[in-house]
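Reproducibility note. Readers wishing to regenerate the assembly model reported in the main text can use the exact inputs given here. Chain order matters: entities are listed in the order in which they were concatenated for prediction.
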Amino acid sequence: MSEQDTAAAREVLIKYFDGTERLASIVDQEVPYPDGKLIVSRTDPQGIITHANRAFIEMSGYTREELIGTNHYILRHPDMPAVAFKDLWDTVAQGKKWQGYVKNLRKDGAYYWVKATVIPNIRNGQLVGYTSVRRKPSRSKINESEALYATLR
Amino acid sequence: MALNLSVSPDFPPTHLSGWFIFNTWLQRQLGEGVHLELYDSFEQQREDIRAGKLDLIYANPYDASMLVRELGFKVLVRPRNRADETVIAVRADDEVTCVEDLAPGLKVATTADPDVHIMGMIMLESADLDATNVSFKELDSYVLVAKALLNRDADAGFFLKAGFEELSELVRSKMKPLVSSQISVVHHTLVAGPRMQAHMDTLTDRLVNMEHDPKGIPVLKSMGLDGWDVMEEEQTEFMIDLIDTLVD
Ligand SMILES: Cc1cc2nc3c(=O)[nH]c(=O)nc-3n(C[C@H](O)[C@H](O)[C@H](O)COP(=O)(O)O)c2cc1C
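Running the prediction on these inputs yields the following structure tokens for the assembly.
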């Protein structure tokens, strides 16, 4: 768990890239990544969730019904710098694999860190969507990312 | 010309005879000669796959990816309830209690099984361990991986979960699993090559019906399988995409 964790709730207005925004309740409390699991989701080319596995549902705190059809930014944590996601989108738009450490926001306001890999899904030469698979990150990588992202916000 | 059936070298040796029985069943279904070609090494099998020598392969998920995306094979079915999961274990008397307790310099006993090795390495990442600070002892079977661990030739072992569970109770009692993967969508598949084209639909039907067919039931049993489920093309693509995210 991070040293900054206070478990106190605060209201934060999150502004998304597409111009929409939402008031989210943020609780500075980490939920540990489950050992041995991969959190898997798929999106359409626009980033709308089309598939979520059980680990995704359990960790995000949302139901499958709430997730499918929703923009993936529903998990965006305000501590994540916009440049990280710009890098993600720029990379996959070139047909390449993106890898990075992401702090995700749960429905209950708590957070969890992942090491994420996102790849484009190509079928018969056409881009049909993206797949993201997350695994457990090391504590040292979380600490490094926390420090780096704080300078990029 | 006879068709060639092969099985990924990671299948449990206890089911060897089952694959010969399956081969006989297969010849009856297809009305053609089928030869079962078995390999000790993944590399040797891959060479023959690339040389176009094999027509029907019970492939591990990593090889299925190459077969489908590079060689135009098609996945027909998957075995029910047989996901490929990986276990990292240490000696029971080791003071280590979780992956994060493992330290650089770790000696890992592993096999050439690509899926298990890749997943094992992914599960070590949370301890900041990777190929630069871990050394490997590559062995031919999970029995030998266990032996290396118990003989203190290695500090940790990577096991296919099914392989770990087939070890004797005595051997298992001397080991301690630290983590077991729970992925569930990565599994072996039966993959058919271009020369199987004319047989694919019939064979898929027969395979799916095997569990209801009095002649098929004992064959499944001898292979240690519950039954086959159809793999739709998109399910296959999804599994391969997922594996793509795991390999560098
Ligand atoms: C397959 C895929 C998975 C993604 N997973 C996440 C995620 O887990 N958390 C997250 O905050 N953003 C994720 N994103 C990025 C979001 O689409 C979005 O760019 C990000 O949340 C920032 O929101 P914004 O671009 O509207 O500012 C993912 C994108 C793709 C294509």
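We highlight two features of this model. The longest helix of chain B spans residues 16-30. The mean pLDDT of chain B is 95.
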